[in-house]
Design a protein that fits this description.
The chain contains eleven helices and twelve strands. It is α+β, with helices and mostly antiparallel strands. The chain has a domain of 195 residues: Ribosomal Protein S5, domain 2, CATH 3.30.230.10. A five-stranded mixed β-sheet has the order 1-3-6-4-5, sandwiched between helices. A four-stranded antiparallel β-sheet has the order 10-11-9-12. Helix 3 packs across helix 4, helix 4 runs antiparallel to helix 5 and helix 6 packs across helix 8. It binds alpha-D-galactopyranose (GLA).
Length: 384
């Protein structure tokens, strides 16, 4: 099978009858720990994974954008100088429209362009296929137009496109790791300062991603609701974000906050702590401590933040029964389905895979999809 880069290159030449001037590729991501902490100005610890969205691009003589999504089999076209409107007929194109609106609003001068898009980041699995698309597009559009942009700026514009145009109030984690990820490293990101620290992954460890294949429903609505609940608690304490609240302060407010608000905030506060501890445990190569921290994170997402579903909890239990204390497993991403992430010594991968393949369908009636992935560099770090 050809890679997304080869595929867009060939298809671009065939469809537009001219070779692409450049091709960009941005990776999807998986988060080791630090869930729903990014929009609370907290800490996250994601890695960029070896699945990419590729964009081939060439200049047009007019001011139009004409884009083909090969995996969807649909095309979109609009004028850079007219009002750029949301398009219900081609949902993928709203990421393109959204990033262009943000770039233009921020003074970037863009050329008209022919664009071809394809990727192998599993869609709807919580592995950030949309962030990979945004980052790949931003890199391609700016480079074609002779504009310079940093990975952090690109991440901000990708996030702004989601927040202002697409309608998901996501944080900055997915875009930032897709832009700035580093091969064989996780990035400890301080989502307030956007300072990033590369943390090496333990030698001989493997990352296994298991897609529950649960149909994700109401994801954006529930996501936005969690964000509102966190912001309400921050407002109660008159601080910028939950990052600034401690557990003692929270305990002192049990009479005034609702039970749900208390649990949501407790998840974020404890998760920030676990994320920083996990970064240290990774540096120490201490998979046993990581396993404990990942288990606590999953339980906190299940009981306090209420973003897991029974099929995901079932996957976690199956994996845990195989790996014991030797590694970690937890749901990863925004929640309500999607994937679990397993970080284990390489020697345990085959046992985990066979237990999941046998037991998960029996217990849920669903087939899992397993991906063993390597950790790659982000779109703004390629060639480093
Ligand atoms: C989604 C969002 C991210 C982050 C995670 C949860 O992936 O896009 O910004 O909030 O959920 O950690």
């Amino acid at each position: 099978m050809s890679s997304p880069v080869e595929f867009v290159e060939r298809a671009h030449s065939e469809h537009f009858e001219c070779d692409p001037e450049l091709i960009t590729a941005a990776p999807g991501r998986v988060n080791l720990i630090g869930e729903h902490t990014d929009y609370n100005d907290g800490f996250v610890l994601p890695v960029a994974i070896s699945y990419h969205t590729a964009v081939a691009i060439s200049r047009r003589d007019d001011r139009n954008i004409v884009a083909n999504a090969l995996d969807e089999g649909t095309q979109t076209q609009f004028d850079l100088d007219a009002d750029i409107a949301f398009d219900v007929a081609t949902p993928w194109s709203n990421y393109l429209r959204g990033v262009i609106v943000e770039l233009l609003r921020n003074g970037y001068r863009l050329s008209g362009a022919n664009i071809t898009i394809s990727g192998n980041v599993p869609m709807g699995a919580g592995l950030s296929s949309s962030a990979a698309l945004e980052i790949s597009l931003i890199r391609a559009l700016t480079q074609l137009s002779g504009e310079t942009i940093t990975g952090i700026e690109a991440a901000r514009f990708g996030q702004a496109a989601e927040n202002n145009f697409v309608g998901c109030n996501c944080g900055i984690m997915d875009q930032l790791i897709s832009a700035e990820g580093l091969e064989n490293h996780a990035l400890l990101i301080d989502c307030r300062s956007l300072d990033t620290q590369p943390v090496p992954l333990p030698a001989d460890s493997a990352l296994l991603i298991i897609n529950s294949n649960v149909q994700r429903k109401l994801v954006d609505g529930e996501y936005n609701l969690r964000r509102q609940q966190c912001e309400q608690v921050a407002r109660h304490f008159a601080v910028a974000a939950l990052r600034d609240v401690g557990l003692e302060q929270l305990a002192a407010a049990t009479a005034v906050l609702t039970e749900v608000q208390l649990r949501r905030a407790r998840h974020v506060i404890t998760e920030n702590d676990r994320t920083q501890q996990t970064a240290q445990a990774l540096r120490d190569g201490d998979l046993v401590s990581i396993g404990k921290l990942m288990a606590d994170s999953h339980e906190s997402m299940r009981a306090d933040f209420e973003i897991t579903v029974p099929e995901i909890d079932c996957l976690v239990d199956i994996v845990k029964s195989v790996i014991g204390p030797s590694g970690g497993v937890r749901m990863t991403g925004g929640g309500f389905g999607g994937c679990v992430l397993v970080l284990v010594p390489q020697s345990l991968v085959a046992d985990v895979a066979s237990a999941v393949t046998n037991q998960y369908p029996q217990q849920t009636g669903l087939q899992p999809t397993l991906f063993e992935c390597s950790v790659v560099s982000g779109a703004f770090n390629q060639g480093v």
